[in-house]
Amino acid sequence: MSENKQKRAWAGIIISAIPILFLLMDAVGKFVKPEPVVTGTVELGYSETIIVPLGIVLLVSVILYVVPQTALVGAILLTGYLGGAVATHVRLGNPLFTHQLFPVYLGVMIWLGLYLRDVRLRSLIPLRSN
What we know:
130 residues; mainly alpha; 0% strand; elongated
């Protein structure tokens, strides 16, 4: 592997690690269900009974994203999950940059990280012609 390709792969891993760690913490919180998670979920308009199923969906999606062979499917699932978060915050009229767009920031990091670490995705979406 050339030095440039190796740097690109490492950059992709580092960029991917940020949303992975954040979303894993979120998933664990949904299984442990501390009071702030339950309160926050209910304040967002969801029933407490949905917390664990959301955690399962999130954890499975993150695991799929981490595994190179299924990373594309994981990225697609996480995009849908984060889209739901955006819709929830928009519906509630929460602040734009800190609440409504935060899931978008994570989604950008998910796709940028995958783009940098997966040659198959780069061949599907070339940013420059050769």
